[in-house]
Structure formats: C-alpha cells, structure tokens
C-alpha cells in the first residue's frame, strides 16, 4: 500500500546540501519547508536552487513551503554562545540593544514594558525557562528566574495571557515574501495568525507584489488562543492550517493541546481544508537514531485522526539523523494507514456548507465508484488544483493521480494527501485528455494497461469550469 499522508521536512544546516536533499527525497520528503526565522536570502536562494537541481536529477517533484517568521518575540545576541540563568536570580529584559548576559538580555519587542504586568509570567525558549515580573522601569522589565537553565541567542519569548497588539505580517515578513515570490515558491505559511483578517492582509500583500501569484496557497499557523477561538473563520479564509504545537502548548495549558489538535483536524476536514500537524513529532531523533514509543504513537494518531501531512522541524533542520528521521516517519505512516479501517477516519464525510457545489458531489461520486468497482486509481484533471484537493479530502481507497497542464499547480499537488501529480500538455477535448492520461499512466504509475480508473474533469475540457464529469475508463496501451 502506498503512503497517503505527506511528509514535510524542514531544511537547515543539517540537510540543505544536495546529497542530503536527494536522500531526503528518496526517503519520502514530499514538501520542503524553508524556515525564514533563520538564515539569509542568499542562503535560502542556494537551498531552493539545490532543491530544484535535485528534483530534476531524480525526476521528482517537491512542494516548496515558505514559512514566514511572523511577529515572533525573541531574545537578542549574547556576549557568549549561551548564558546560564540561575533560579532565584534577577534577570533584566530590555528593549535596548545590549549583548546578553546572565544579568540582562535584549528582547526584540519595543512594547514589552507596556505588555507585561506585575507578577506576570514570561517564558523563554519554548517554555524551558520561566521568569516572573517584579518591576517595570522605562524600557526595562525586572524579573526573577523561576525556572533556570541555559539560554542561547534568538530564543522565543512568550507572554501567556497578554493581549499583544502586533501585526501578523511584519516588515521582515514583507521583505521575505517579496523574496519568496521572486523565487517562485509554491506555498506560504503565515505565523501567529489570530483572525481571518491576517490572511486577508497577506493576500493583499501578495496581490501588490505579484498579482499573478494572488491565488498561491496560504497555510495559517494556529499557535495562539485567539486563533483557536477564531478557528472556523480562519479555516475559511486560508487554504490550510497548521497545528503549531510549540507555541500553542506554551500559550495554552499543555494538557489541552491534544484535544485542541483533534478539534482543529475535525474542523479542517469538515471545511475541506488542508491540515498539518507540526512540532516535536520525532523530537528525540534530533540526537537519537530511534524515536520514543510516545513519538511513534503521536505520528500515528495524527494520521488516524485525518491529518493531510505531518511535519518535521529541528529533526531534519539541525538533527544528526535527518534522512533516517524521514524514513522512520514514512514507516510509521504506512503502518498506521494499513490499519485505518479499524482505527482511523480515512473515509471522511463531506458535510461542509459548500456541499451543494457540483465539484463536491463529483468527488464524492468518484470515491464511491472507486470503492464499488474496485478500480486501480482516481484520475483528476485539474488546472488550479482545487479538484485534486477536494478529491484528496474525500479520502478514496485508491491512489489519486492528478493531471495538470499548469506547472505551478503541478508543484503544489505533491502536498495533497494520497495524490501524485503529473504534468501533461493542455487538452482541448475529452479524447485528447484521455490520450494524455493513458500515456502518463503507462509510463509513470503502477497502473497497468487494461485496468480501470475513475476520471473526473470539468466539461467542456478547454474551459475553466468546476468538475461536472465522472467516467470509468480502461487504460489503453500505446
């Protein structure tokens, strides 16, 4: 059985050379995430070039995901590589530029003194370190260390419960967005989304930079309690959501995150939206060749609950075993999907408000045909990628072969659950389309001549119309 759920791997110092990228692709990487919280544009351009060269050499495709850093509050530079914070000691947080020490650390948030209150909690480094506010003096916040440990430069700062008046799309994000669009990236992830308006602002920014890319898929990262409150409107506004459990588990009680994760997956699937589970999925493999049993269960449950993709962050960006980690994740997914009929939610009920849409009915009919006729695959003819996404959310029991004449759509389709993309020439008729499908299937898929597939498309073929046609077709040899 072919793997259906997709793997997103973050590229970084441990994985951005060509040899490692090739091995990651062979191991099962479907989406390459580039984290713009780190690195320079020059470094990112080199990674993108390496990716494209590797995919050409391997005759593969990979979706490139640009992850904008967003308004992440971070500590500044340190005088040394790290400082040790001691429980009970005083630590001053300042908005002024100073080299960090065990006594004073810069924070890149000018409104910090106005955003905290006496006895309020401040968390550093994904919650590993905890401070409590003791005084506020000008641009300085005087704190006491409650939970100590080592602090390195550029670590995250969280202010649980604070109502921060900051834009989701920062000036840095704007520059990174311009760069990403110039590099023809395929998908954009927006950090710290709180409302649907954040997505609208990003769309406007894309439109202003390059109107031709105004429809580029956007993933909203849900990592703040406000995002959970506004979950449904955000899902409608974006093309997909990411359950970013790192900051979410800091801003909310950790024990609530598993339930919130399940709620987000269910809501995204109900609204036919792409959903990714991220953060610490195989975290121990940063330094260990094998995951913990709890991590394996975490990946499996994300798949069984209906996630479209699971994501690796530090495991592949800075870990000692990036390729082995992707191989392990692929193995866990395959094992989970083999038992999806017993434990999973793989065949989803399409109950979104858009269920009156012909495209939804056609994908549902194709799923039923695939089941009843025991066909070899569902073939989707798509220009924008929407039909393939709807077919993916229908969760057919057979592979989805997505055919498109559009190169940008082709690049994006690798991200969709259960979907393999194929780039074919533009077709003017059903006969021409079927001919292209036959040739592509025979050359590049496990489907054999004489096997039956379900094919869905919009008719007339030469027009941009929603799918309104589902037919059974027997694959013909050349």
Instruction: Report helical residue fraction.
Output: 25-40%
Determine the strand fraction and express it as a percent band.
15-25%
Helical stretch tally: 17
Q: Going across the major beta sheet, what is the strand order?
A: 1-2-3-12-13-14-15-16
Q: Quick check: average pLDDT? A: 92
CATH top level class name of the largest domain: Alpha Beta
Q: How would you characterize the largest beta sheet? A: 8 strands, parallel, barrel
Class derived from helix and strand content:
alpha/beta
Question: What's the layout of helices and strands?
Answer:
Layout (H helix, E strand, L loop, with lengths): L5 E6 L6 H10 L3 E5 L5 H18 L4 E5 L15 E3 L4 E5 L9 E3 L5 H4 L5 E4 L4 E9 L2 E8 L1 E3 L5 E2 L12 H12 L4 E4 L5 H14 L8 E5 L2 H5 L1 H7 L2 E5 H7 L5 H14 L3 E5 L14 H12 L4 E4 L1 H4 L4 H17 L1 H4 L14 H16 L3 E5 L4 H9 L5 E5 L2 H7 L5 E5 L6 H15 L7 E6 L11 E6 L4
Parallel strand pairs: 1-2, 1-16, 2-3, 3-12, 5-6, 12-13, 13-14, 14-15, 15-16, 17-18, 17-20, 18-19
Antiparallel strand pairs: 4-10, 5-9, 7-8, 7-11, 8-9, 20-21
Helix pairs in contact: 1-2, 1-12, 5-7, 10-12, 14-15
Characteristic terms for this protein:
TIM Barrel, Pyruvate Kinase, Chain: A, domain 1, 478 residues, six-stranded mixed sheet, alpha/beta, eight-stranded parallel beta barrel, M1 Pyruvate Kinase, Domain 3
